[in-house]
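Section 3.1: Structural characterization of target chains.
Under the original work plan, the team committed to producing a structural model for every single-chain target entering the pipeline before any wet-lab resources were allocated. The record below documents one such target. The sequence was received from the expression subgroup and is listed exactly as submitted; it comprises 193 residues.
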Amino acid sequence: SAKQRVGKFLVKFVLYLFLIIMAVIVLFPFYWMIISSLKTLQEYELTTPTLFPHEIHWQNYANAFKKANMGRLFLNTVYVGVVSTLSSLVVTILAAFAFARLEFKGKNTFFALLLATMMIPGELFTITNYITVNRLEWMHTFTALIVPFLVSVFYIYLLKQNFEQIPNELYLAAKVDGTSDLKYLIRVMVPLA
């Protein structure tokens, strides 16, 4: 009926109006950041801000890139990101495999203690990590940005659960064939997971 169509239209109109308003609120800081970077210093420091720069200065990016040595900072970020990701991946895979497939004394107790560390807020590790990094003389090195964050208990838990879904018969068959644990992990577990 006509009332239902008008009602549906009003609901959609209000919904889209709300979504547009929320999109403007979310995107405005990004817009402000970009237009502020294109302004002159004098225009940027005005007491009454402008919503669009009077003159667009693209050379601000080149100047910032040179003065802040952004190329080196970018390479440092890429290096730390790649090395920490790959190292964390190796540690996570090995730990998850050990908890999922290997049998050793105290496995369940150790895993429970590992899970219990998830209840400790990460902020509490800040001082301990600082003291450790300082004592090992890693200050002002990439090692200080990589090593303290290698182990993620949450990722170990998730991967362990995934590894446990892979049938144990595959592992036993590989052991009968004389396959080492590491070879089984790399050739069977990781591709299946």
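The mean pLDDT is 92.
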